[in-house]
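Input (structure):
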């Protein structure tokens, strides 16, 4: 059976490291990082994600200011709030929880955030920095995947990484991150998507396979080679009457059968998810240090 790459365990370790760092920053520099979180609407998933981020921030010592608005909140008011937060020196990071209601232009909102406070790493300036390998804020999920591999002593350099999924949040930035000629990267990248024909021809070639489609049962054992490392990014709710919630969470990969062939695999839940929030915390801390003049990034 494959070795389990527990993001839950690694995230707990990294958050302890951050807690220690923030205790020192407060003592030496009187610095307590501050994150402003904006939530528009009542999407259950978004509410749950925000609660998780608030809890994680509180644990390591990051202050959170939450702005919660009804689903009909005007776009103009949202943009005005972002401008005010951009100009507030006491705010180190700004996070707008996605998705936004249909009447709000997501792109316009994300572009309005000051790139130096864009701790999600979604602003085109930070995307551009990632593309050319310059310092910037890396989106949490790709960065979390990289850390999950590296801190489990899985070498990325020279490996063939096949990414199934081309989203702006996972697939594309992960490809940009792992192709860099840098330590912790230097991989050969293949990206597959809905337009890829005979997708198993590519997944079978992967040394490291990352599956981020948001669809259960995307990858089965016949689609991977022996010894592959598998990172399952998907989180899908499946009805399950045996559970109190009425559902259970599964990934995009057929876990049981694929883990019989893989050398290592991330579980769902408890794999990539905790790492995504942990790397958000990392970005907030880096933003605070940079704005205080303690480090460049």
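Output (sequence):
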């Amino acid at each position: 059976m494959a070795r389990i790459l527990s993001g839950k365990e690694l995230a707990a370790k990294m958050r302890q490291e951050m807690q220690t760092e923030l205790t020192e920053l407060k003592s030496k520099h009187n610095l307590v990082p501050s994150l402003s979180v904006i939530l528009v609407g009542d999407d259950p998933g978004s509410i749950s994600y925000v609660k998780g981020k608030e809890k994680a921030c509180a644990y390591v010592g990051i202050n959170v200011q939450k702005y919660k608005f009804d689903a009909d909140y005007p776009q103009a008011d949202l943009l005005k709030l972002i401008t005010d937060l951009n100009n507030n020196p006491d705010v180190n990071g700004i996070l707008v929880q996605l998705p936004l209601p249909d009447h709000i232009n997501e792109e316009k909102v994300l572009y309005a955030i000051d790139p130096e406070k864009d701790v999600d790493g979604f602003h085109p300036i930070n995307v551009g920095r990632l593309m050319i390998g310059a310092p910037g804020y890396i989106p949490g999920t790709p960065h979390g995947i990289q850390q999950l591999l590296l801190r489990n002593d899985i070498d990325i350099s020279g490996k063939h990484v096949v990414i199934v999924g081309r989203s702006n949040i996972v697939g594309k930035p992960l490809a940009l991150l792992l192709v860099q000629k840098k330590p912790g990267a230097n991989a050969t990248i293949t990206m597959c998507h809905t337009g890829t024909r005979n997708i198993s021809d590519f997944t079978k070639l992967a040394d490291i396979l990352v599956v981020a489609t948001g669809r259960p049962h995307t990858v089965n054992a016949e689609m991977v080679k022996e010894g592959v490392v598998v990172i399952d990014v998907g989180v899908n709710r499946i009805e399950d009457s045996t559970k109190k919630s009425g559902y259970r969470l599964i990934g995009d990969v057929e876990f049981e059968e694929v883990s019989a062939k893989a050398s290592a695999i991330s579980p769902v839940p408890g794999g990539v998810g905790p790492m995504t929030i942990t790397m958000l915390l990392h970005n907030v801390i880096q933003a605070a240090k940079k704005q205080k003049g303690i480090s460049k990034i």
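Notes: The radius of gyration is 19 Å. The chain has a mean pLDDT of 96.
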